[in-house]
């Protein structure tokens, strides 16, 4: 065999799997159909969205809170094209970073579409028009996902767009209608609302980010409302008509009445689907399930064909970059004969709005549904010295702990820097800490993390000190 490991797809799952395989002494190749490495996350996902979230947040703060801080500006204006240029620079830097890491680890990179010839052979249809067949003892499928589209929503990528186009708009929409108030809707809706667009969210469920703890969605909606956004919750979209310069969305509300909303752009973000197009899975003896996912064995992430593994968005579980990375490391170590472990219950979920939302473990709704006896402790950001100093007082920390043992079962944060704060909860829960354990640990003052300690105190015996 030419290679010990061939990885198809260079997103956070694939490129990390390749690095870990190479570190373990396996001769490794990676195939990427585009000319740049990094996948969805780096090129049209995590990184560009965060770059625009940061730029738009600076603009919004300059407009709304700098004066109170004593910083006076005149003629403030949002230059979207510069924001997009900066975002492109960030991506390029990181594309080069991954290319460097491939070189450093002696991983062979093939730029072209990978498709199976048989279970050990992959054809690479290269970008220069030539083709090459390579063989591997092990193959890792890390081909990721693409936006879900519905047949009655005509996505023309100009006025009716997905997240990919929303990261490259030429103008700030006057009225952006966001179909789906999940993670992408909340993040990219925030970007354009902060830049001055009217944003309307049309969401099937009765809250924003409905898969997270309900308190988070409720609080987030309050914060995003302050940006001037409108919400059409419990509304099912039934049609989208693109008139060229404007677009009309029709939805049915909970009373079964038709509601129409007209804007100049519609962002469709109703989830993502696993992507296996062009892989020629049948040649390897593989097929996807009804939802387009590749099925894998829980203990090895191996598909039903020996030596072929799958990771990341193309398999079950959360569609998150850090989940894909963990699986990349897991499979490389499994191939090398090790016995790695992933604790799926402790993969945090973060929404990079402002305030940020971050969550790990079980939600209150899940605990109720499971009939688990639990106690909850909450602490509001407005009672924190640090939050008052920075004027970031929206939000709260909610800690859920087992009623009898006090073991922490879930931590849900909405507030400034929640994305970074959630790491404390992950560590605590990995070591099976109780709420009292955390409440007895010193947290620097003044920091946002004091809200976690206070919420743990509240969960222990209602002993919060500052509430
Ligand atoms: P991908 O990153 O999708 O990579 C798959 C790669 O495989 C692609 O480069 C593709 O071109 C390549 N490929 C596919 N088929 C072939 C083939 N046949 N041959 C060769 N190459 C092929 N997650 C987070 O954790 N945090 C975030 O902040 C975050 N923000 C996001 C924002 C947006 C707007 C979007 C859309 C997603 C975001 N995500 C975020 C999700 C994250 O991007 C994905 O979970 C992650 O990229 C999945 O990694 P992956 O390696 O499985 O696949
Ligand atoms: P999502 O699953 O987060 O949200 C989709 C929303 O659309 C849901 O709230 C759903 O109820 C709603 N919906 C579905 N069909 C609808 C319809 N017909 N009419 C109205 N509403 C409808 O999916 P999203 O936002 O597209 O993101 C895809 C994935 O990308 C996420 O699941 C997440 O894993 C990943 N992602 C992660 C980010 C992060 O970690 N910060 C950021 C962005 C994306």
From TrEMBL:
Domain of life per record: Bacteria
Catalytic activity annotation: N(6)-[(R)-dihydrolipoyl]-L-lysyl-[protein] + NAD(+) = N(6)-[(R)-lipoyl]-L-lysyl-[protein] + NADH + H(+)
Domain Pyridine nucleotide-disulphide oxidoreductase dimerisation as annotated: residue spans: 347-455
Key words, A-Z: Disulfide bond, FAD, Flavoprotein, NAD, Oxidoreductase, Redox-active center
Membrane-crossing residue ranges in chain numbering: none
Family matches, as Pfam families: Pyr_redox_2, Pyr_redox_dim
GO molecular function term, any single one: dihydrolipoyl dehydrogenase (NADH) activity
Cofactor binding comment, as recorded: Binds 1 FAD per subunit.
InterPro entries: Class-I_Pyr_Nuc-Dis_Oxidored, FAD/NAD-bd_sf, FAD/NAD-binding_dom, FAD/NAD-linked_Rdtase_dimer_sf, Lipoamide_DH, Pyr_nuc-diS_OxRdtase, Pyr_nucl-diS_OxRdtase_dimer, Pyr_OxRdtase_I_AS
Cofactor: FAD
UniProt EC number: 1.8.1.4
Domain FAD/NAD(P)-binding: 3-328
Family: Belongs to the class-I pyridine nucleotide-disulfide oxidoreductase family.
General remark: The active site is a redox-active disulfide bond.
Protein name: Dihydrolipoyl dehydrogenase
Highest classification ranks of the organism: Bacteria, Pseudomonadati, Bacteroidota, Cytophagia, Cytophagales
């Amino acid at each position: 065999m030419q290679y010990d490991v061939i990885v198809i797809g260079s997103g956070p799952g694939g490129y990390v799997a390749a690095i870990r395989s190479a570190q373990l002494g396996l001769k490794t190749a990676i195939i990427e159909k585009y000319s740049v490495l990094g996948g969805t996350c780096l090129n049209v996902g995590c990184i560009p969205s965060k770059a625009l979230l940061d730029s738009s947040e600076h603009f919004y703060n300059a407009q709304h809170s700098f004066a109170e801080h004593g910083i006076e500006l005149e003629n403030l204006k949002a230059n979207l094209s510069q924001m997009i240029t900066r975002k492109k620079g960030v991506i390029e830097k990181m594309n080069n970073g991954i290319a460097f890491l491939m070189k450093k680890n002696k991983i062979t990179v093939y730029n072209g579409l990978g498709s199976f010839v048989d279970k050990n052979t992959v054809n690479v249809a290269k970008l220069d028009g030539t083709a090459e067949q390579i063989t591997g003892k092990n193959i890792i499928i890390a081909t990721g996902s693409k936006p879900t589209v519905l047949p009655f929503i005509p996505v023309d990528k100009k006025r009716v767009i997905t997240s990919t186009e929303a990261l490259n708009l030429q103008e700030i929409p006057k009225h952006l209608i966001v179909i789906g108030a999940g993670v992408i809707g909340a993040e990219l809706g925030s970007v354009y609302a902060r830049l001055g667009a009217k944003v309307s969210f049309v969401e099937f469920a009765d809250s924003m980010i409905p898969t997270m703890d309900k308190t988070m969605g409720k609080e987030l909606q309050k914060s995003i409302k302050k940006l001037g956004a409108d919400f059409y919750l419990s509304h099912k979209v039934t049609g989208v008509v693109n008139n060229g310069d404007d677009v009309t969305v029709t939805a049915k509300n909970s009373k079964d009445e038709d509601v129409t909303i007209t804007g100049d752009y519609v962002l469709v973000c109703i989830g993502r689907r696993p992507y296996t197009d062009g892989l020629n899975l049948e040649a390897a003896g593989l097929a996807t399930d009804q939802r387009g996912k590749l099925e894998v064995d829980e203990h090895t992430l191996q598909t039903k064909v020996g030596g072929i593994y799958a990771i990341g968005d193309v398999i079950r579980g959360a569609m998150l970059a850090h989940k894909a990375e963990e699986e990349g490391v897991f499979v490389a170590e499994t191939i090398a004969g090790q016995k790695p472990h992933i604790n799926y219950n402790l993969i945090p979920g973060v929404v990079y709005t402002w305030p940020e939302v971050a969550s790990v473990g079980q939600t209150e709704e899940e605990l109720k549904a499971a009939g688990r006896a639990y106690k909850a402790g909450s602490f509001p950001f407005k009672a924190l010295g640090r939050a008052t100093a920075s004027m970031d007082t929206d939000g709260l920390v909610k800690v859920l702990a087992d009623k009898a043992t006090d073991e922490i079962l879930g931590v849900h944060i909405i507030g400034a820097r929640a994305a970074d704060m959630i790491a404390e909860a992950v560590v605590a829960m990995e070591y099976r800490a109780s709420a009292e354990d955390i409440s007895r640990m010193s947290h620097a003052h003044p920091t946002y993390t004091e809200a976690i300690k206070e919420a743990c105190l509240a969960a222990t015996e209602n002993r919060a000190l500052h509430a």
